[in-house]
## 1
Amino acid sequence: MRTLGVTIDVVIALVIVLAFAIKFYGFQTYVAQWLASYMSDELKAKIKIERIEIDLFKRVELKGLLVKDLRGDTILYAPSMKCMLQNYSLRKRHIQLNDITLAGPRIKLARYKGEKDLNFQFIADYFDDGKKDPKKEKHPWKITCSRVKVRSANFSMDDYNKAHSDFGVDFDHLGLFPFNVNLSEFKNHGDTTSLMIRNLSFHEQSGFVLDTLNSKLKITPTSLTFSPLRMTTPYSSIKSPYLVFAFNTFDDFDDFEEKVNMSSFISETALHLGDLSYFAHELRNSDQTIFMNGKFEGTVDDFQATGFTFAYTPNTLIKGDFHVKDITHIKKAWFDLDIKKLKASQSDLARFRVPPYDAGAYLELPGEVRNLGDIDYTGTFQGTLEDFKTSGNLLCSIGSATTDIAYKVNPNTDQYAVTGHVNMRDFNVGILLDDNSLGRMTSSIELTATGRDFKKTMNVNVEADVQSLELNGYAYHNTVVKGKIRNETFIGSFKIRDENIAMDYEGYFDYGRRINGKMVPVYDFTATINNAYLTRLNFGNRDESAKISFEIRTTGEGINPDDLRGTVNIRDIVFVEKGVNYDFKNLRIKAEELTDSTKKLSVKSEVATLNVEGNFNFKELPNVFVSILSKAVPSLFDNRVVKVKSYEKFEYKLEIHDFTKIQKLFIPELELSKNIVFEGRFDSRQDIFKFQGKNIARLKYGDQYMEDLRI
């Protein structure tokens, strides 16, 4: 018993001596050197510890810790590494640490050229707790830790087998400074490691900045799982109950857009495309933010989003189920979209930047799309932006429509092809086509179209049932159109069965052909018009009962009188006003260009016959005849001669057969006898006027009249 007592006393004394000894600098230095030498021998690499501060069995602080790899390059240099002891066993060679705190460490991982493993692999192998070589006499030390804190670390990892990337986060050449993180809850099971990450932050050498990341992380050789995830950058905020990156090897991060598969439910997330560009380089220099919510699965270049919302602003967003491929190459990106809601603000779209972002390029839409104004849409879309099929319901600033359309652009010619069906309701086609004469339309349209734009190169086959179309301020109802539009030429037929007009048309009408340097319409058509109420249709301001019926057959060019060429035959002209019928029978107009400076106009009807030949302006002709009349009968114009504005030189002959109907309808003050003839010559530049009047049995204007007048 006495011997046992002495032994216990000795042990206690040794412990007391050790407790005092370890507080002395010399002893601490000795222990540091011994431990560094021991680990250097064990690892066959240089380990150096400048000093150890030990609070007996509670705290150990290593100062000036240096760990080099097998090539003599630094893996770790830590000015201070504090360890809180939780448990240890010298016999089992096991140390369990509660906390490790690294302050200002330099961590340098590398995979040298021609090698497979990183430069710290020999350390991992040493502490591997797997099956050991049975020939070994002793086990290596096993060190475990509950928590790790890293403050202001400088971390790098380089694979010298790989070239450097000129932009973005290069997973083969990482550089993080300052790097801060709290790690805890470490667990290992086979090749799976899990841990809790709190307050992870860093600046990556590419420029990418992570303000904070909090998550539980599970690492396997083929996946990284964050659950839940909270992450912020200076421009982005990401929230998700889970985010999984799946891959074959970590090398797949070199081709992140195509090889790393992601799975997540994203909630209340704002993703700045500039942040994403560090991983998807095609987005470089983008400064736009996309707001997201919903389930996401796939790679950046091939993903599916379910119940998802992408929002650029509250007024420009899309909600639905989406499958998208090649989104980083927007011109060839492929979309399969079930759109529950799409809103687009034209002002937002005008500010939306597109690649290449460094060129300052913005989204350019056709003028007709811009004219739609703000858009609300539900439907489906499948294809690329230049080759797609879509159907749905459109509500926009200029009306509403339901569509079932296929659209394709030929990349070699830039020509589009459109086929499908469109139902429009109160749709302002005037705004759509920049045509002030047109207004709102309600219609059902079947069409096929090709061209480069909707006006100049358009080739369209169309069948339309137009319930309503505003033209010149009047809404025409019950119109059926069938025909073709070729480069602004309509070839076909239409019927109108409106309460204020019945019309049948067949032929062609070219809206703009260049003739002698001018754009003039060219036409060849037949039309029958019955009971066209002119005032109600906004043609003139006569009594509301005024209506006209006739049949017209015309071939020619020009609507402006000065450009008019061709023949117009109008038959069975009947004008009705206030119950009185005026039968004008037939009217024939022929306009010819005889030479570059000589024209001929012929008008023949039961009212009058007119022939004019020479250099004259059609538009000025009425003023010319007023001028002639003012010279012939000055008393009708208060002895004032009416001047002609342009140069006119021509011969003329006007035969008035029966002026009675014209008088009653338009000039009741003027009364002319039948078969009057006016003829002569006019030269405005030479001030030559020759005028001869024949068979003027009676000419009366108001209270003034003349009989048997010869001029």
## 2
Amino acid sequence: MVVEDALDRERVAAEIASLEAAGNGGDGEVRAVAMTFLRRLPRRRSDLSADDVICQAVVVTYPTPDGPRSYVMEATVQVPSGAGDMAADGCRVRIASNIDVETLGVRITVRGTSFRQQNGSTTVCTHAALGSTCRSMGGPDIGSDALNVLLNAGANPRSILPSQLNVAVAGLGFEAVSYDLSELPGASHPRPQDEITWELICCLVESGYPVLLVFSTASPIDHVVPVIGYAVDPDAWIPVAANLYRQRGGSDAISSSAWIDRLVINDDLLGPAYHLSRATILDGAPHRGLKPKSMIGLLPTKIELSSVVAEKIAAEVLDRWLSRLVKVRGEAVWLSRLAGAGAQLVLRTTLASKAEYMAHLRRLDPAGEAFHKENLGAMSATLPSMFWLCEVSLPQVYVGNRAKLGEVLVSIKELAADETDNDANVLAFRLPTILAWRADDDCFALTRTGLDSHGPLHRPPAACFPARAAELSAAAPAAGDGGAGA
């Protein structure tokens, strides 16, 4: 471990000036140190590389009337490298980017995720969650003064309402997609609220977009934590048991979120990379006063149809269409297996852009022989810039191979005139030997492809920080130009 004085760092100086301007300090010395944890200490500083860095934490200690208080102003934790960015504990951190750290006079870029603690004076958990999330997405290192301006915190930055958080998210260039979890499910979701909550969170995080999860606590004050990753348990019993023992009939599909057993969260009061189990939410009972209250997804575009509704639509249309498609492509073995009696579909829904999806199709066909270029071009011309990508698989294929047999593309906007016309929300679909897209409002153009078996799942890239947000954060007043909430 390398410990260095950090008082001369620009961000630290701004933080201390903000604390002093708030007038909550006491008598004593202000200190700041950067602690860098290394896998090895090289003989020469020039030999130091990103692979050597585990974590760097900048700790500020400032005097208060009750004595000195220390907190982690900013920490950068390197995410696991290698296949699928999967850690030894099976967790995949999705909210991460390249972040610069400096130690021993050397500036090093590591792929990591950011963690912050509140200081209890000019910042609370909301500041910590929002600031660290922006940093983890490759955004600027936004200080407490700038965050208070975005949150419109005024003279009391220690009491932030959910509406202020939504405004701040929008001010940073995101679309704030909010769900009041106490109001789920609605009439169109005849399933338990906690199950829908889990699917909503898992879909966004697996898509590479952060979620701010708000918990009600035993005290009157809510607590905000960012969700940065998840863990898949391929040996989970419930999904496959539900397939074996389920009641038959209806649109028989299971969400891939059933295999996600943990979320990875940062808690500014406890530390980074804690695990939030599926059971904590699905058992329907609060744990010592903790219960999910609301969630805010930080997305690049407005969403009218939720991922849960999109997945429900995909399940319903497949239930009706597969038997008809088998009559057209009866020679396709895997298509017949999807439509077979007793088959249960697995649906994995992520938010995808048109560019990502077209690139994904090219990766499925590296030789360039499975699709006619004219067909790909015609389909691409009909697609909007973003949509829900509902990947279709079977339990054994999804778990054993992490693979799928096709996908249904569902609009993120409400296109149907009413809830009974779900077909109108389907933009295109691909199944074994079939590629189809909207020819007009009433029918699809159905074409043949050379892909007749399963292929790898789509791996969404981690979301990037909006470009215009850097300008917004830079426009905030510097420390000492008016204090928190100026």
